[in-house]
Structures are given as C-alpha cells and as structure tokens.
Specification:
This protein is mainly α. It is built from 5 helices and no strands.
C-alpha cells in the first residue's frame, strides 16, 4: 500500500504542477490535463509495482539464505497476491473516501435526475477495482519472474483502459 501511496503522491505533484503552469481558463486544456494526470498515475503505479517486485525479490533471496533448508518461507505467488491486494485495498479506500465525501455535501443524490443507485454502483465499482488490482499484481509478478514482457504490456494496457473507462463514466 505504501508504494501505491507514493505513486499517487508523485502523480498528484505532476498534475498539480502542470495545472498551475497552464492556462486555468481553458476548460479543454484542463480536461486534457486531468486525463494526462490519470494516465501518469497509472504508469507510476505500474513502475512502483515493478519496484516493489524487485524489493520483494531481494527480500526473498535474503530469506532463503538465512533459512535452514535454503527455501524461502513465502512463495512469490503469495507475495504477488498480497501486493496486488494491498494496491487494490488502498485504491478502494481512496475511492470510498471520495464517495463518502460526496454523501455529506448539500442535497441528496438522486433528487435531480441522478441515479438513486449511485452509492451501491460506486461500491461495486470499487470492489471490482480491488479485484482487478489483485489480478494485475499476480499477473505482473508472474510476468516479471518469467520475463513475459507481453504480459507486462497487457497489465499496463488493461490498467490504462480500465482507468480511462472509469473516468469516462464519471465525467
């Protein structure tokens, strides 16, 4: 989760600087910067997922060296699952916090033509993204271990596509 938070911090800083260096009156440019920020966030998440894989690989080697039988007590698949799940959970926490912040604002969702199923739909979407992050983590670690670069590209492309589709439905 820490690596996901650091990637979010860096993406936020890049987006913040780009917005402040641009023309704030140009709505089309600001929308483009928002899309740019989402893409940068996804790419940074995947870079930090790779950095976490490298860190866990070194830790796994160290654990194998100090164990009595020369085997690591935890498998790479278990680490991949836990890593993906932690990325997903922290991503879901941030999504739910934003939704809960909307719920305490003025008015009630659903009165002026909005969907009365906003909160349940958001909960299912968050749950799906947690599961996707878990799957992406497992596939990413396996692809790094077996040097299957097309699988890495598939994870990054599907993550970008999913973020784009979610952003498209929100806007």
């Amino acid at each position: 989760a820490f690596f996901w938070l650091v990637s979010l911090l860096l993406a936020s800083l890049i987006w913040f600087v780009s917005v402040h260096l641009s023309d704030r009156e140009d709505a089309k440019l600001q929308y483009g910067l928002l899309v740019f920020g989402a893409a940068v966030s996804v790419l940074l998440q995947e870079v930090f997922r790779f950095a976490y894989f490298k860190l866990l690989k070194k830790a796994d080697e160290g654990l194998a060296m100090i164990s009595e039988d020369g085997q690591s007590p935890i498998s790479l698949r278990q680490m991949a699952y836990v890593s993906g799940l932690s990325f997903g959970i922290i991503s879901g926490v941030f999504s739910v916090i934003n939704i809960l912040a909307d719920s305490i604002g003025p008015g009630i969702v659903g009165i002026h033509g909005d969907s009365p199923y906003y909160f349940i739909t958001s909960a299912f979407l968050t749950m799906a993204l947690v599961l996707l992050h878990t799957f992406w983590g497992v596939i990413f670690f396996d692809a790094c271990e077996k040097r299957r670069y097309w699988c890495l590209g598939l994870v990054v492309a599907s993550h970008l596509l999913t973020s784009g589709l979610v952003s498209f439905t929100i806007w």
